[in-house]
Write a structure and sequence with these properties.
2 domains; Rossmann fold; alpha/beta; four-stranded parallel sheet; 173 residues
Amino acid sequence: MSDREFEPRIVAFFCSWCTYTAADLAGVSRMKYASNIRIIRLMCSGRVDPQFIMDAFARGADGVLIGGCHPGDCHYISGNYKCLRRFHLLKRMLSDLGIEENRLRLEWISAAEGDKVKRVVNEMVQQVRALGPLDLPGRFGEWDKEVRELDARIQQEHDAGPCEAHAVKESQA
C-alpha cells in the first residue's frame, strides 16, 4: 500500500465538558476536518486509563488523541493533571515498545475552541499519515514468533544438560 492510499485511523478520547463540546461546536459551525478520527466521550480527561490507549493501538488505531480542559479549568478540579501524569508515563512506555511518540497526542481544548479541534485533528492526521501504518496487531505475530523461538532454544538447552548446553550456545554464536 502506498503512502497516498494509507488513511490513518485515529481514536480520540475527549472530555465531555470542554473538548467534546468544542468538537460539537466545530461540527455545528461546519468546520471541515479530517474524518479519520473516532471520538470517545469521557466525563473527564482524568478518566483516561492507560489501558484505553494501549487497547486502541492493539485494536488497530494508528494514533490516539487525548483532549481535555485547560489546566486550572477542569470541572473535576484536578482531572487534567492526572491525565498529564498518565500521558507522560504512556509516552515512555510506547517508546519502549518502539511506537513513535507522534502517535499519541494530548491537547488542552476549551469548549469555545472549535477551530482548535479542527487544526489539531488535521495536524495529527498529517503526522500519522507521514509515519505510515502502525499495524500493532501485525507486530503481535512477529513478537509471538520471537517468543516461540526463544522458548524452543531454552528448551533445547534445558534438554541438553549443563555441559551440552554450553556447546549448543557456542555453536549458535
